[in-house]
Amino acid sequence: MTDLEAALRELDVDWPDTPDFVPAVRARVKAPAKPSWRRRLVIALSVMVVAAGGTLAVSPAARSAVLEWLGLKSVKIERTEPRIGANLDLGPAIELPAGTRVPKALGTPEAYDTKLPDGTKTVSLVYDGPILVQVFRARATPFIQKTLGQGSRAERVPDGYWITGSHGFAYESATGFGYEQQRLADKTLLIERDGLLIRVEGDISKAHALEIADSI
Amino acid sequence: MARELTEGELVALARRGDGDAYASLVRAHSDIAFRTAMLITHDAAEAEEAAQDAFVKAWRALGRFREGEPWRPWLLTIVANEARNRRRSAGRRQALALRLVPGTEGGSAEATVLAGETRATLLAGLARLRDDDRLVLGCRYLLELSEAETAAALGVKPGTVKSRTSRALERLRGEVTP
Prior knowledge:
The complex is a heterodimer. By secondary structure, chain A is an alpha+beta fold.
């Protein structure tokens, strides 16, 4: 080792104190028990029912209870540094799976087989604009947390949020937690509906996004 | 007789969903994760976020970790990726303001002052280096990462670490030689 290397090794740097990561990491990874195959099947089937257009006639009171159960009523907004320009990374283009329910009045979408950060998959629909539409299945454990960047705004809308400004959001799915970054634009509508998280993203107006989400 | 679990045993338990085992791994690697992120982001708040996100991502990715391999380089790859993503998004930042712990070496007051000056000169030289030079030297000598760990943190081949380190040392020598 040269003198220079030895001198570098001897530099005693006054690093900032290391934070205690354990409580925060514990809270974020408190993964629910793995669902049984039967439970997985039920989830898969219910996703198919929704995708195939099964009606979800839920009374306002019942819906409110569902939302409460999902924890959306007390959604926690964390301010963190925005991550601008997340790549689109939607996965391979596929034929629109038969029976996929698509928003009305939006023409024919391009469909992509998208792997989500938590390891689950969803079909991403991309329309002219471009507009991105995705539906995630929430898991039984009540959880939803959005992590927004500084300079972004979350406006309450019925059953969800209209987010403007660069952002990402955290969620929990059947297999774990995921953190989705904005993919297309810094305008995203997130709607929680009966255990599903509906995402409509694009350079569009709030009214248009709400209209799209309502038509799913 | 009770003994501490080895890292491999902790990883194996964590892979099976043992949160306490994972907490032990997090605790043992907090310093190196945070400081590696500090070297890259130059910002304590961002480094904290990067390291925390990395620990969460590492937990989720444990299934893909090859048992029997050392865990630290694998973790540092994730930490460095998280840190780089933040750095890219935040644009150019000020140079890492490294401070030295006041010298505690024994000897005469004069010797202490001289040693302090040498260290200050070295630090100032480091601060003038290009980012990638400073990063490779920071990983190797300030964090004392192995070549393999440095390669994992920088996302390059171990051979590249060797050549990059010697080039960076040469440039630092140029900076500190009167």
